[in-house]
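Morning run. Coffee first, then this:
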Amino acid sequence: MATTATALSLHEPPKVGATLQALRQGQGLSLDELSRRAGVSKSMLSQIERNLANPTVAVVWRLANALRVELAELLGGERASAPVIETVAAHSTPSMSSPDGLCQLRILGPIDLAGQFEWYQLTIQPGGALESAAHEPGSREHLSVLSGSLEVSAAGTSQRLVAGETARYAADGPHAIRHLAAADGSPNQAAVALLVVLHP
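And here it is:
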C-alpha cells in the first residue's frame, strides 16, 4: 500500500488537538461557533484540543467539513495548499458591540495579527461613543470616516471629522470616538468608519 511522506503512526491514533486548535483559531472561530457548525459538543471539542480524547472518524469528518479543510490535514497529514485568494463570508466576520448597542466593531483583520496590527469597520449610532482606556505605550490609531460625522478625542484635544477625512493619533492614553449630529441639520444616521490600530 502506498503511503505519504507524512504517514501516520500505526501504533497510536493521530493527535489532532493542536491541529484542530490552530485551524479553529486561524479562522477566528470560538469553541461555541465550531461546536454549532460541526454538531459536536463544546466539551468534546475542548477535550480533543487538549489531547484528552481522540475523536471518531465521524467526528473528524464533521470537524473537517465545518473548517472546510481536507480530512488528511486535520489528521496531521499533508496540508492542502492555501488558496490564492482567501475569502471570509460576511456572516463569518466576527463583531463586537458596546453594552448599549450603539457601537459595533466588525473585526476585519485576521486573528493572528491581533495585538500587532488590527483593523475594524466601526459603526456608531446617534448618541453613541466608543471610549477606550490607554493601550500600550507607542500605540496609534488611524480613523477614516466613510459616512456621517465623528469626533475624536485624544491627549486632551478633540477633532471633528466628516466623510472622507482621516485622523491619526496616539492611543496610549484614554481616547474616544463619538457620533456627532449632522452639521446641516439633516436627520441623524449612523456614522461608519475604518479603524486601524497599530501596536508597537
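Residues 113 and 119 are 10 Å apart (CA to CA). Good start to the day.
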